[in-house]
Design goal:
7 helices; nucleotide-binding; binds adenosine-5'-triphosphate; ATP-binding; alpha/beta; ATP hydrolysis activity; Rossmann fold; cell cycle; globular
Length: about 220
């Protein structure tokens, strides 16, 4: 589903955030991406979202070389990818429900269908009873679950997360990870960047480790 083939990412200032990275993630697999601050985790996720392009090598998703996609095709590419950020990036002038339904409306979903899907996504993360609230009144863990509902509402094949538990206590972090596992169990390919080594060690998934832009370990 995801494949990095000798990928190097050099930023315009000449810094190599990723150097000759090789790995593949099978469809339906779940893995963690770890490494020190600045190791290149976010850069790797940005290449998958087409927020950045590689300087060398190829990034493939579902056997498609992402370099073949023009900037005009990026919105279509992003529909097969769901992304969860550490700081949620929620709209605080809208209700929880509107935060989830808006991306679907923007994609042109029929309004009734969009409403049904948004409610189903909120139900999956256990927040259906809070749909009318403004996300600003929710706890950090609940806000993160709104972020997850928004990431999965369009049923993406691939779910990416960048430090999704960064602001959460250990119990809430485990709950969020369990949610990712549930989506993975129904077939979504999941890649989570995290430097919470304790949490990662308690989970049975593959761990890909970056160090100064190089892939230095890959295993259970
Ligand atoms: N647009 C940019 N221009 C120049 N350098 C950049 C740019 N974006 C990131 N970098 C550098 O690339 C390196 C990798 O950054 P990246 O954000 O991918 O690391 P990270 O592993 O996600 O770190 P963190 O865990 O702190 O978020 C860092 O040294 C960073 O300063």
């Amino acid at each position: 589903m995801i494949s990095f083939d000798n990928v190097t990412k050099r930023y315009p200032n000449g810094y190599d955030a990723l150097s000759q990275v090789n790995f593949s993630l099978a469809s339906g697999e779940m893995a963690f991406l770890t490494g020190h601050s600045g190791a290149g985790k976010s850069t790797l996720l940005k290449l998958l979202m087409l927020m950045e392009r590689p300087s060398n090598g190829r990034v493939l998703m579902g056997n498609q070389d992402l370099a073949t996609l023009s900037n005009r095709q990026i919105p279509y590419h992003r529909r097969r990818v769901g992304v969860v950020f550490q700081n949620h990036q929620l709209l605080f002038d809208r209700s929880v429900f509107e935060n989830i339904v808006l991306p679907l409306r923007i994609c042109g979903f029929d309004p009734a269908d969009a409403t049904r899907r948004a409610r189903a996504a909120l139900d999956k993360v256990g927040l259906l009873d809070k749909e009318k609230l403004n996300p600003v009144v929710l706890s950090g863990g609940e806000q993160q679950r709104v972020g997850i509902a928004r990431a999965i509402v369009h049923k993406p094949q691939v779910l990416l997360a960048d430090e999704p538990t960064g602001n959460l206590d250990p119990k809430l972090s485990e709950e969020v990870m369990r949610l990712f596992q549930q989506f993975n169990q129904v077939g979504t390919t999941v890649l989570i960047a995290s430097h919470d080594l304790g949490l990662i060690a308690r989970m049975p998934h593959r761990v890909i480790t970056l160090n100064r832009g190089r892939l230095v370990a890959d295993g259970k």
